[in-house]
Specification:
497 residues, mainly alpha, four-stranded antiparallel β-sheet, 15 helices, 4 strands
Length: 497
Amino acid sequence: MRRIGDLIDAFRPADGPPPDQLWPFMRWALSGAWRVLMLAGVLSAVAGAMESITAVILGWVIDLANSSARAEFFDAQNWPLLIGAVVFFLIVRPLAFAVSSTANSVVVGPNVMPLVLGRLNRWTLGQGIGFFDDDFAGRIAQKQLQVSNSLTEVAVEVINVVAFALASLLGALVVLGAIDGWMVLVFAVWLLAYGALIRFFLPRIRARAAARAGARAQVTGQLVDAITNIRTVKLFAHGKREDGALIGELGRFREVALGFGRLAAGFRFLLMVIAGALPVLMVGGAIIAWQAGGATAGDIVAAGVVSIRVAQMTGWVSFSLMGIYAHIGEVEDGMRTLAPPVRLRDGARALEVTTGGIVFDDVSFAYGRDSGGVADIALSVRPGEKLGIVGASGAGKSTLVALLLRLYDPERGTITIDGQDLRDVSLHSLRRAIGMVTQETALFNRSARENILYGQPDASEEEMRAAARKAEAGEFIEGLEDGAGRKGYGAHLGERG
């Protein structure tokens, strides 16, 4: 698999939004990794085929023991089979499982999650500011993690379980068919009953898993919202109110989780019943065939090994399928939040600032409402002019700046810089050309150095320190120490001691 950065870079926002249908969305999220996923699936199927070969070899050994006198069991003519059995159990079978496990746990598992999360985050960062205005920051982050983790689990489990199980079932059909054709028919009927059980329960599990994921995301959003605004919570003495709001969300999550748990318990009970029936049917059929002279003692052993293994695998596969469907439900839940595009059209050319003249021409914007924002603004700012805009709270001062930075597009009118309509220039070039100091303090939980360099990442160390001294913060920063013992400009501002 290529480096994750290379895989993510293969995606471009111009390719369009992630699809809003499940399977196209999964193809979009996993693009670039499909060849490796299919190879891992083939290796898992090879490992699954080892189970049927195990049963066949054990049957051969039993038949050899029945057909030979005790003293003749290790005669020369029997050595090829015995040596082959030893080589299979000590080398071939362990090697097949080791290669399959390595492909899944080393190649697939550690790479899929960063690939999907990186791709989702790149898409999310490009959403318009309205996307973030309408949701909790914690909930959006939870949805990204939820989708990437769930898609990883789906990929790993499909490879680890479904490919393995299909190969094992195919091998079981071959082994049983070699013993008695009627046993294949009985096994096929059993598979139909098993499939009907899966078909009934798994879609319901998928729907309830999606509801559970949505309720969990609401809990996370409530927690993060309160903690993010903890100063406000404390200033207004609303600790009990926030606690009550969280308890309400936890109550809703508990009810949804209980519904999921009851459905899962019923599914597991019926699954154990149908799994227990398989060895009875297969071993009983082999014994009947043996009594009729159509099977050997080794065939009975082979049928027993295959049926018991398939019965055990049935529980394992069904629980894994239940997990897969639950994760698919979580992917669908996250997809509904993350996939819809809430974006501004990006201009094709870079802004060219010659003199810096700004013109608002009959600009109106009300955040999609009937009133509020600004209306019929006609304003010109000449190059080099310093302009102060004064007004009551809510009069639209911040809205004007947001429109200039193109966090939103005017609902009517145009804004130009040096005659260039802002809708025709790239967002990156526009925002890099404007310096802004907001009234809210914004600090990332990163080092003081990284926070200062955020506006100009290529500045030198001396330029960065000079900027701190000019802001009269140099002495303060040099005295910082965070909880991890990092000092000065290396101290993380979210972890000050």
